[in-house]
Amino acid sequence: MAVALPQARKFLLDRQRLQGLMPLVALVVLFVVSAMISRSVGYGREFLQPGNLLNILRQSSYSGIVALGMTFVIIGGGIDLSVGSMMAFVGVLAVATLNAGGGGYGAVALAAATAIALGAALGTANGVIITKGRIAPFIVTLGSMSIFRSLALWQRQGGMIQSQSDVYEPIGSSSMLGIPTPVWIWILLAVAASVLLNRTRYGRHICAVGSNEKVAQYSAIHVDRARIISYAIVGAMVGVSAVLWTARLNSMSSTNFGKDVELDTIAAAVIGGTPLTGGRGSIWGTVIGAIILGMINNMLNMAGVDVYLQGTVKGLVIIAAVLIQRKL
Amino acid sequence: MSPALVQTVDIAKEFSSVRVLHGISVEVRTGEILGIIGENGAGKSTLIKILSGIYTPTEGRVLVDGREVDIRTPEDAKRLGIRLIPQEFNLVADLNVYENVFLGNELRGRAGLLDRKQMIRRTAEVLASLEVQVDPLARIDSLNVAQKQMVEIAKALAFDARLLIMDEPTTVLTRREIDLLFQRMRGLQARGVTLIYISHKLREVREICDRVLVLRDGAFICLEEADALPVDEMARRMVGRELSQVFPPKRTADGEVALRVEGLTVPGVIEDVSFELRRGEILGFAGLGGSGRTEVAETILGVRRATRGRILVDGKPVALRGPPDAVRAGIGYLSEDRQGSGILTQHELVKNVTLVSLGKYLRGLIDRRRERAAAEAYVHRFSIRASGIDTRLEFLSGGNQQKVSLAKSLDAEPRILIVDEPTRGIDVAAKRDIYRFVHELAARGISCIFISSELEEVIGMCSRVLVMRGGRLVGQVEGEHITEEEIMFFATGVKGEA
User: Fold this and answer.
1) Which of A183, B236, B358, B454 has a C-alpha 20 to 30 A away from that of B147?
2) Which residues in chain B touch residue A194, judged by CB atoms under 8 angstroms apart?
């Protein structure tokens, strides 16, 4: 029977609960502020229009899906800087597969399968090099970031690739019950990721690995395997997102596609309360983090902030989020 | 009588409302060597950490030269001339000697650049005054342990230390190095430096100290002239009870062999280690630090790869490529390095308990109800003091952390359990609990390997003790032959072929 230490307990629970709620509080505050700004700059109630809110969710979903995987990588004590470039490379091959397959529904399925499998394979490669080669994740994925982008550029010689399918774009722009398809998929994947993190052996193991690798090793956990799987997961998420996004755009640029996705996904996880030191994290926090980033973009657009300055705001938000985490 | 350099008045310290130091009032006289002794958890480290500014006391005052002072940081202590030489040295291996001596206090010349010449000269002076032959430009990682210790002392003296606190300075030294250290300590004393000397080695305490302070369970027991306190009296006051009360009655095990190790060799680490462990036996592993005891455990666990040798569990050879294989073979390990490889301090109690055994709680997903019930059961069985099973382990005391660590090893249901320094850094009551648990496990047929540097617990717990030296098994003592002297003869090479 546990002997109660009332003060310690109160202190503990409050602090943990507070940390867990911070992202949600931030989202609500941001929502209110955005609504007020949108009113004051004379766009009426534009921000609060359902169409606009759904658009924010759709815009957030593409990197939000990748951020789910990034959360596992960061919890395991790693980082993946290659996701943006990987998305370009995977996207090029997905659209090429689609076109080669004739552009029908079968070809769409084939392209999606290719993208997810290729993403998982590239992620696995990252993970294997990191764990077996004992190289810092930062360095390995910095290298593969350059490789993937270069491969995408080489494939298209720096240009675009256009889908030649009649059904691809309609799928990408479709909605169910009024909610965009990518958002549905994001929600489903977030539920799955949350279960994986909180209710399975793998989830426990990746937390243990990120918290203290040696303890994990001595506790009979396959440390390398757990790490590699986290990179495979983020790779597969890149595949899913690449398909959804190219379908929406119906084309993609090998130069720009996937740009800043590494920044957005890492930021979403951090804003959502997953510390970069690993060991723990929250899937729903990451989802909220991604929405916060999407909302900030939307607000800046509405407020007429120069598009070139938006990166500055995003960067400041990320740094502020980490600072606040430290202080709590 | 010399005046007091440092005086503590009713110093008390609490950690998360657990009182670890109860109203200590002592005077440290100018120019004396004061010994502090006590068991692990007696409060020695807490007291000196308060004096050196690492902890701030919950209650009480500290006086230096009769004036009340406020020591909040190690910097404050340093300004007052109080320097701690920690057990684990605080030296940067990649820097050289003079850079370490002046680390954080670099001398600068006119342009704001480092005044290397001056720093090297001053370092050489200090080292010379200690009669130490070390080049100020030598890199730290090229020095041996005794030399590193001298660099630590030089680091203190370079800034006019008046009180030098040495925490277990001799554990890693050879007898010759100890003699040299004592000689230098007397030299410092002659120069008017006051020393506090903390050690478990009571004979050395008697040899070097003028007065001895005994602490037990965080309380003041006595402060007496060393001459008036024979070694056995020191021990009695430290423990405060007869040893036999602490340990459960010994058991003899003559069941079948549960674990057989044959010729286990890891080059440069352990050499040709062979032994048998019987069902329900508590087999002691003694030896000095670095003699290879933990390394044998790590090899059995598969963390280290053996180049030669076999391991047989219940008579069948097993291939142990890593801890997962060991767990499958029914081998559990309680780590000597609790926070380094034993438990996840940032994680909740319940998650630690089931970390190894999570497979038991899977029904597709983790069955949290059963998992929590299991954790509650251990909290009850081991009387773990925690505010609940969702408490993170960083908020538990060392003894309670160790009980969680033991629960974690046990929940995987091992038939062979290796406990490595199971009572390191925990208080007396928790120690007694751990002894009792290990004894109960053995009574239930679990075979235990009991690795410990504390001879009295090896002697108290085991009916057979293997002694290691330099990576080899050099001796075995049984029954009434298990004495401190006999074990030390083997451990230090007086007896037994190397």
Assistant:
1) B454
2) none
